[in-house]
């Protein structure tokens, strides 16, 4: 029996063997796709299993899969299939689908939150632009009372209800009047 340790490769040697840059290997490690061993000096050392995993990642990337999709796929084993090939079982594919669906749902929620925040930021910007306009016009020598009257008029105009709002307000007013008449 041989007690020989399997050969471990440095980042440069592993990158050369896989025909990628050392930065690519480090990036995949940062993404949690591969965890190489470390030497006493904290250098990355790659085993044959690591290289096989990198090969799988690179093949999946070349087929157009995202790194998030690859991460989900790497969580599941390949199983023997026809012709000596290895494939995912239907159960594994369902788990991959569920994992990817959860990521899409989380991104949709983030997008919705960003849209709400953008809308709030745009409203705040509109208010600040009006404030800035007032200050600049005051600095240019315009009359403060006239500018304030203009701002009040614009504020009242923005608060003027649309026909739909008027209808809703009228309905609420009628309901309030009826409640008052009934002593509620």
Short structural summary:
The protein has 184 residues and is mainly α. It is 68% helix and 4% strand.
- Structural class by SSE content: mainly alpha
Main sheet: strands, sense, barrel: 2 strands, antiparallel
Strand order of the largest sheet: 1-2
Write down the Rg.
Answer: 32 Å
Overall pLDDT, averaged?
84
Would you identify the regions where 5 or more consecutive residues have pLDDT less than 50?
none
Which band does the percent of strand residues land in?
under 5%
Bin the helical content.
55-70%
Number of domains: 2
Q: State the end-to-end distance.
A: 94 Å
Total number of beta strands = 4
The total of helices stands at 7
What is the succession of H and E elements?
HHEEHHEEHHH
Describe the global form. Answer: elongated
Helices and strands, with pairings:
Layout: H1 11-18, H2 22-30, E1 37-38, E2 44-45, H3 48-62, H4 67-74, E3 79-80, E4 86-87, H5 90-139, H6 144-159, H7 163-181
Helix pairs in contact: 1-2, 4-5
Description:
The protein is mainly alpha-helical. It folds into 2 domains: 1-65, Multidrug-efflux Transporter Regulator, Chain: A, Domain 2; 111-181, no CATH class. 68% of the residues lie in helices and 4% in strands. The strands form 2 sheets. The protein has a two-stranded antiparallel sheet with strand order 1-2. A two-stranded antiparallel ribbon has the order 3-4. The longest helix has 50 residues, at 90-139. The protein is elongated. The termini are far apart. The mean pLDDT is 84.
Note the main attributes of this structure.
mainly alpha; 4% strand; DNA-binding; elongated; DNA-bd_dom_put_sf; Multidrug-efflux Transporter Regulator, Chain: A, Domain 2; two-stranded antiparallel sheet; 7 helices; 184 residues; 2 domains; 4 strands; single chain
């Amino acid at each position: 029996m041989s007690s020989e340790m399997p050969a471990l490769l440095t980042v440069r040697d592993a990158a050369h063997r896989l025909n990628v840059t050392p930065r690519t290997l480090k990036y995949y490690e940062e993404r949690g796709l591969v965890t190489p061993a470390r030497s006493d000096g904290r250098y990355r050392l790659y085993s044959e299993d690591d290289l096989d995993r990198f090969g799988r990642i690179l093949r999946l990337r070349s087929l157009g899969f995202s790194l998030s999709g690859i991460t989900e796929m790497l969580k599941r084993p390949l199983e023997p299939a026809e012709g000596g090939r290895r494939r995912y079982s239907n159960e594994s594919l369902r788990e991959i689908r569920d994992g990817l669906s959860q990521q899409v749902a989380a991104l949709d929620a983030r997008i919705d939150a960003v849209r709400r925040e953008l809308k709030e930021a745009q409203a705040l910007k509109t208010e600040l632009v009006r404030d800035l306009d007032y200050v600049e016009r005051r600095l240019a020598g315009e009359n403060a009372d006239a500018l304030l009257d203009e701002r009040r008029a614009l504020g009242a105009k923005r608060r003027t209800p649309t026909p739909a709002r008027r209808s809703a307000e009228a309905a609420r007013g009628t309901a309030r009047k009826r409640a008052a008449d009934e002593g509620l």
